[in-house]
Amino acid sequence: MPRFIPGLLTAAMAFASMQAMAAADLVLFNGKVFTAEPGQPLAQAVAVENGKILKVGSDAEIKALADATTQQIDLGGKVLMPGMIDSHSHPVVAAFDSMGSNLLDEVKPLAELEQWILAEDQAGRARRGDVISIAGVSSAYWEQSRELGKIFNQGHWAVLPVVLSGIDGHTGWANNTMLKRLKIDAALVKSLPEKERNYIGHEADFTPTGYLAENGWDRVRTQLPEPTEAMMLDAARKAVQINNQYGVTAWMDAAANAGNGDSLFELRPTDKDLGVLPLYRTLAHNGELSAHVAALLIAYPKSKPADLEVLGKVMQQFQGVPNLTFPGIKVFADGVMEFPGQTAAVIEPYKNSHKRGELLIDPASFGKLVVAAEQHDWIVHVHADGDRAVHESLNGIAYARKLNPTPVAHSLTHLQLVEPSDFARFKQLGVIASMQLLWATAESYTEELVKPYISTSAYQRQYPAHSLLKAGATIAGASDWPVSSPNPWNAIAQASTRKGPLGVLNSAESMDRESMFYAYTLNAAKALRLDRQIGSLAPGKQADLIVLDRDVFKVSDEELFETRVLRTFFAGKQVYAPAS
What we know:
Number of strands: 25
Helix content: 25-40%
CATH superfamily of the largest domain: Metal-dependent hydrolases
Strand order of the largest sheet: 7-14-15-16-17-18-19-20
Number of domains: 3
Mean pLDDT: 94
Shape: globular
Low-confidence stretches: 1-20
Radius of gyration: 25 Å
Distance between the termini: 63 Å
Strand content: 15-25%
């Protein structure tokens, strides 16, 4: 049988390669292409075949791959980059909140607030069942709990249950009618252990003021009338659409097994706790899930290793659902730092209470939980807001590294305070810093609800992005939507300026925009454990692409903040373009 000589074999292979490369079904050219591949310069064009990146290169190289059947898009010099990835979000809940009355963190004078709620009710947006339910309420209102009571416990409101849901997801307020319905009264408060009693705002005689935090808030939040399945499916559909509009093509759902009626902070999940997972499955089967969803299942902070078995059973029920993956578990290590909550676990006590917040994990056993998760091939994603929560979470991961030195892509999220001695540990332990840098601003939260209650040195360490980056940490971008906007362009610009209505929050912690581009692409893909499939424009990866309306490498930070997405592609198919 004839044999190819080496030269002929090489030529034949090259010809076959050219034939394969000529099968591009989409090319985008004449652009400014950011690949998110480290060290790779900007390119001009991209070729896509069967939903995956075929090649990135010059216009001439890519156009050579087109034939009569290829869709060709002239970018006209526009920037093209990978789809944005959000490493911590709650999009279905967020979209549901946006379908009703939502203050979106705006602080109105109380008289104006009352009139606004009246108008919302008259417009038919304010009620869940018979409850006046307002989402997106700023923590700035909680200092005025008694004043809220003077308005919403009398007159028109005296017979109406009223619930104001804090935008932070950890706090809220309810009027006396709602509290009475749920039997939250002085007798209950007095009967509670001190920790739980502190979660319910009360007078000296234990009479509730209406303010609630953590599992105190869960007592109200979980008793709101349940939305219908159709409403929740609409919310899930809207969540995908909104994310695609902002160029987001993947996210980590950080509480996927929790439903509206579940207590987040005391959740002891079973294999019946499915949360929003059935909604994602329905969208996927309908061909409507134009995003990768990395679903995290909440685990009780003090879980024993054996407790994780039920989470594996939940994951098994959804194996094979397109675009739905299960990278691991979510654990709450603490709460929030803002007054009056102050449930974030801190090293230095709060100045007003002389307490150190609430550490929800057990330092003595958390490492064993991390080890157990790794034995399931799961990551642990930890809500760690205060520096004590960060420190103890890192200690738990360090325990696991002693048993298995190979780094696992665990992540800590929020990171409002981090002790300087812990900066370098992120790189040493391979822990990803999932940061919501839209929060890095001088506004009422940082200046009025945090600054007076912590030390000067701690105040200067809020959201220490640059310090972590300088220490070698991998920074992943995140929104925590609905706590803040899912728009990554707002966060990318804010990470640079750190400006707010009350000044600048420690400019030394500013992040450069190129690092932020990586934070929302390749680094976030690592946090989702999907960096082999998405996160950069490399041959073989899925063609999740976005086209932008401005040169994000050159415009000012103010202009960067207003960036708009002109096209979003998921697996090579356009899933968003603004209406003409």
